[in-house]
Design brief:
By secondary structure, this protein is an alpha/beta fold. It is built from 17 helices and 12 strands.
């Protein structure tokens, strides 16, 4: 008889026990799944109703009613005609105007009674447009110039432009917020205190609240002059914020402001451009930095360039880029890298590290104390780089790609072509002689 001492127990079991274990495991997993479903927070149902503050609410509701009536008519026709129905195109709801984007200046001019023309204090001449001025006068609308970004230019420049513009219309120098203040945005308090500061807006509001009749105020201006920031500053001074789905907001009992600013078109191809246009379209001009800085060198003096860029004695304006490359220690091999030096200057201008302004004729002693009190803490009292002209002559020559089949013989004269043919024949004869010697 064979002894079974030291052998392991068999793991076999009856089918009844095996199936029973599987059934219990399935029941256990089912219970776990039920408890997980109950513990997960269900998504809240979205309310499809239109809020009262939404623009064009009545038009959207009327179109929804029409669509519902069309569906009922189609169901009736299906019953009578046996399902052969010609469907009508659905009516598209009117899309509300976004409060954060700019629209054409023509819409704002036609809908507003008073126009706030936002100007960049660094280059006011570039922000003005005679065509737009004529259009506003023909429409019979009032203009108020808003001299924005006064913290980027010296105080005497602000006063000089105030004296010059006040002969045409009312002028209010302000420093607007650098961020968009809306209901939905959550801003860190530290950044909010730094960037949401503004000044000079209370004086503008007091002037607007003097209106005896109900008026609408619109905001117009060129690209990147701070139109939306001016709207945010005005609303913030009234204790309000910009609604994302509203096209206007209440300032006082009789004054409302259109929260969608109007955009004035910039310079077209072939027209003279300014430095503000270059900075607002930096992505296009960053590929041609040398041409931009060469144009900038022609509108500044040698003394100002040496002071603001801390340059040694150089030949102006031809040696400006060479001096900049040596100053910033950028080289391409052993030669100064003009492109890298020019990009450094463009980035300094974009980030407001290098401040500039366009020089204007006039005294800087005419800014009233009432207006100066609101912006006194923001005024810039140091020197900035003065430009002699508001226009830059940027000569950009784009490289033309050659088409297939084109040769370099198109620009050669007849005499040069004969010399070229004689030279090629002599080379062919020399090659034949060398082949014969090798043989």
């Amino acid at each position: 008889m064979v002894s079974t001492f030291g052998k392991k127990e068999s793991k076999r079991m009856t089918c009844h026990k095996k199936y029973k274990i599987r059934r219990k495991v399935r029941e256990h997993n089912r219970k776990l799944a039920k408890t997980l479903k109950k513990s997960v927070n269900k998504k809240k149902k979205v309310d499809g109703s239109i809020p009262n503050m939404a623009p064009f609410k009545e038009e959207i509701l009327l179109e929804a009613i029409k669509q519902a009536e069309d569906k009922k008519e189609q169901k009736k026709l299906k019953k009578t005609t046996g399902g052969l129905v010609v469907t009508k195109p659905k009516a598209c709801p009117v899309a509300p105007v976004s409060a954060t984007k700019s629209v054409s200046r023509h819409l704002v001019i036609s809908n507003a009674d008073i126009l706030l023309w936002v100007l960049d204090a660094r280059n006011v001449a570039e922000c003005l447009d005679e065509g737009v001025m004529g259009e506003i006068r023909e429409a019979g609308k009032r203009i108020i110039f808003v001299l924005n970004k006064v913290d980027l230019v010296p105080a005497n420049v602000v006063a000089a432009w105030y004296n010059k513009l006040s002969k045409v219309a009312d002028v209010f120098p302000i420093k607007s917020t650098e961020i968009m203040l809306t209901d939905c945005e959550q801003i860190i308090p530290a950044f909010k205190l730094k960037f949401a500061r503004f000044g000079g807006v209370k004086e503008l509001l007091e002037h607007l609240k003097k209106e005896s009749e109900e008026v609408k105020v619109g905001v117009i201006g060129k690209q990147k002059v701070g139109k939306s920031c001016v709207v945010s500053s005005v609303l913030r001074a009234c204790g309000r914020t910009k609604k994302k789905r509203s096209t206007d907001a209440k300032i006082s009992d009789k004054v409302r402001i259109i929260t969608t600013p109007g955009l004035i078109d910039g310079a077209k191809e072939g027209e003279p451009i300014g430095l503000l246009h270059i900075l607002s379209n930096m992505s296009n001009y960053m590929n041609y930095p040398v041409e931009v800085i060469e144009a900038l060198a022609r509108v500044i003096t040698k003394e100002q360039a040496m002071v603001h860029f801390t340059l040694p004695e150089f030949e102006h304006p031809a040696g400006f880029l060479d001096a900049l490359a040596v100053r910033y220690n950028v080289y391409f091999g052993k030669n100064p890298d003009h492109g890298a030096a020019a990009r450094i200057v463009l980035k300094q201008l974009r980030d407001h590290k290098l401040k500039f302004h366009v020089a204007t004729v006039g005294s800087g002693e005419g800014l009233p104390e009432a207006l100066q009190s609101g912006i006194k803490q923001f005024l810039y009292h140091d020197n900035s780089l003065p430009l002699l002209s508001s226009e830059l002559e940027v000569n950009i020559v784009k490289a033309v790609k050659k088409k297939r089949g084109e040769t370099d013989m198109e620009g050669i004269d007849e005499d040069d072509e004969e010399d070229y043919e004689e030279g090629s024949e002599e080379e062919d004869e020399e090659e034949e002689e060398s082949d014969n010697e090798m043989e």
